[in-house]
Design brief:
The chain is of the alpha+beta class. The strands form three sheets. The protein has a five-stranded mixed sheet with strand order 5-6-1-7-8. A four-stranded antiparallel sheet has the order 9-12-10-11, with helices on one face. A three-stranded mixed sheet has the order 3-2-4.
Amino acid sequence: MARIIMHIDMNAFFAAVEQQSNPALRGVPVAVVGSQQRTIILTCSYEARAYGVKTGMTLYEARRKCPQLQLVAANNRLYAHVSAQIIRIFQDYTPLVEVFSVDEAFLDVSGSLGLFGSVRRIAYLIKSRIKIHLGLTCSVGIASNKLLAKLASEMHKPDGLTLIPPESVADLLKELPVGEICGIGRKTAGKLNRLGIFTCGQLGRYPVAKLKAQFGIVGERLALMGRGIDHSPVLSPEQEAEVKTVGHSMTLKQDISARDEIARFLLQLSEMVGRRARRYGVSGRTVTLTVRYADFSTFSRQQIQAEPICRSEELYQAALRILDRLLLTQPVRLLGVRLSNLQDRDQQLLLLPEERRRRQLTEALDQVNDRHGEFSVMSGSLLEVKGKGSHVISPAWRPAGIRNVSFS
């Protein structure tokens, strides 16, 4: 049986949730931003987009284009709560719901037509329920696979509904720029352009052997993408692959150079990464430190541990060792810490009393912070670090399961 896949993308999600929560913001240009001074536009309403305001703009750029722009600090807990409600609506129509991010998901409704009728009717039912119960709109794409469904949802926004029938795929892709396909980023598109490949039609006809010579094993997938072929299944939360890395980064309020200042932020990041790793029940052997200079040049260095770790103190010490090997040539704008090469955390009883005491202390602190919020209890060194980390929802966000992430 042919698959019928839907991709549902909420329209200007963060901004729309803010407008629904505060009637005074409805009908006016709104931008959602982080709470730090050096933040950027996280998303904006369609009223703001009409002035040319875009995601990723600095506040200065956005204000120049739209002086009357209303700024709202991001409320991640609210967005996560609303997203979970939306996902529950999806699950009323199919158990095969794959959360792609906090504001979009794939649904495999192949087995639901007998219950609800046509796929268009399912789409209209979902759109209607989201509008009536939450006051939000979404754009729906329908196709035979995830790649094309994602493309379809982008074609008519906001509040769109687009179906790509199989017989229309070749004509649609013939002149479509390769960069319009999900999974082909700017760098890959640039490499394809240098090969003389500008459209999906050209990509689909290009010799696979030459693509593999340029891109390795990815070259074969690129050839399939150029023809609109995607065999990947829609994975329910129970079927999703386990988390492969745990990381956090933050843009600093001002550029810093002093080692003790950098170390304090590394301590905060290590605590955030450690808590997430322990929440997932994993530990890792590879610690990576990422540094971005004031001129936006960025690099990463890593260290492999003798044994898997997940305690924040151990992460912090590893990050410090990497830092001490670096010769920083500019003030630092961004710092990041990541734990990878993961495995399930060893839950066996520890033999050494000191190790047992450390684990018990860590678990007690985690319980307090889980109950009362991130950094309710913390190292004294963190008291001088203002702010509480990330101001955006991680792409790893899920409403339930191992990839569930909650930010305070």
